[in-house]
Amino acid sequence: MTYTAPNQVEPPVAGLPGVDAEPDERLPLPVSRRLARFLVLLAVFVCAACGLVYELALVALGSYLIGDSVVQASIVLSVMVFAMGVGSLAAKGLQRRSAESFAAVEGLLALLGGLSVLALYASFAWLDVYQPALVVIAFVVGVLIGAEIPLLMTLIQRIRRQDPGSAVADLFAADYVGALLGGLAFPFVLLPVFGQIRGALVTGAVNAIAGVAVVLWLFRGSLRRRVRWALSAGMALVLGVLAVAYALAGRFEVTARQALYEDPIVYAERSAYQDIVLTRSSLVRGGDLRLFLNGDLQFSSVDEYRYHEALVHPAMAGPHRSVLILGGGDGLALREVLRYPAVERVVEVELDPAVLRLARTYPDLVALNRRSLHDPRVRTVTADAFAWLRGNRERFDVVIVDMPDPDDVATAKLYSVEFYTMARRALNPGGRMVVQAGSPYFAPKPYWCVDASVRAAGLRTVQYAVDVPTFGNWGFVLAATQPPELRLPDDVPPLRYLDEAVLRAAAVFPKDRPRLALPPSTLIHPRILDYERESWRGY
After folding, report:
1. 239-287, pLDDT tens digit by residue?
2. What is the pTM of this model?
3. Residues 68, 402, 405, 451: which is the catalytic one?
4. CATH number assigned to the domain with residue range 24-259, chosen from the 4 options 3.40.50.300, 3.40.50.720, 3.40.190.10, 1.20.1250.20
5. The PABS domain covers which part of the protein (predicted)?
6. CA dist 350 to 301, 371, 375, Å?
């Protein structure tokens, strides 16, 4: 045991955080040391919450703009964790001036983190640069987050020396609990109340107040007047920039969103699930109304009838008193189904209530779907189709699967063997199911993977594809427990495009697009997602 004289300060242990901290008696504080330590840990708590919000905001924006949430999350998290290590190392040289360094780091983090979503959206909309910008922003924000912990450790040790293990435990407990708060606040408070851009700006303002103001007040006695004025002016500047950006965020978002679309936007909404945009072009006679979900075109009013006639009517060539539609919340597939007087009931299952509300109320879309969602034969269900099928006990003569393309894990499950098995169980004996399967010309692997997955679910299939000028060649898979005959129903209503001759031609595939023998896609191994990525990279 080392003897220490009564008035001698025991030398710090080399290599531990805070070794350059001033002894307790040399640090003037405006409150008791216990309260000062609590306030620093409270700043840790709030700053950790803000840091996690920045990460989640970047992941969410990538999912909206690019899709493939797994890839976006992997890029953001891996880059930021690496950058945090870099930031921790860089902070070693700042520990001698820990208070002002921490305040400066938090000011920069509040500014850059708060503006990160806005800057990334602008880069995507006007520069058509996303992934490089994402990596740069994630790296810079990660470096600043990583610099927090060493500086905070030094501040805590300056207030009151304690065993390094206990100090680390207290610091990381506050950090992790704060991360929990940020992780819950982002989807349940910030996104619904403020949206992505304003939510990040509000987070930046909270970050600046917690990280800069607390330190400025708590450690003001140890800071030179010039430093105090500089940090105060810097915090005011950060809050001012964030406030101006908040005020202009609505106008910015409208302008940036319009830059992404060729035609004028007539309706835009960011729901809890996706970005919903309607555009209308006056260059086409009668106008061309187009629906986009997360930037992906869903239909053009000029030729959507080709797609929906091909999707619906071959599946109705059999019993069709009861019909289940999975997806298709715009009501256009439903419009074709309701043209049959023999149809007695239809269940429409759509994930996003905002899409259903739009299809019921937006005049141009209501006219296009012929008020199909107002028909008394229709029952709408707002639910995830996969989850709904798991609990479904109803049976139907026809099942129509009209889902968005499988560009991320959330949609890939809707193209799995498990999903098609549950859909098969919803069929009455002799019932038929049809699946939109993408383009066998532009994306042959995803198309034939859908066919393999439907067959693996215990159904027999026939394949066909039609020309939809807006999309190009587009394919479908018709399925039943017995080999289905590709034909139109006897009671088919007058159609604008589809007839028996077109349908026979649709079943003929060119020599350069033969059937591909591919394994099916499952929940555990979503091959369709890999094929989809590969196809679009090649395209």
Report:
1. 999 999 999 999 999 999 999 998 999 999 989 888 999 999 977 777 8
2. 0.84
3. 402
4. 1.20.1250.20
5. 240-481
6. 21, 16, 16
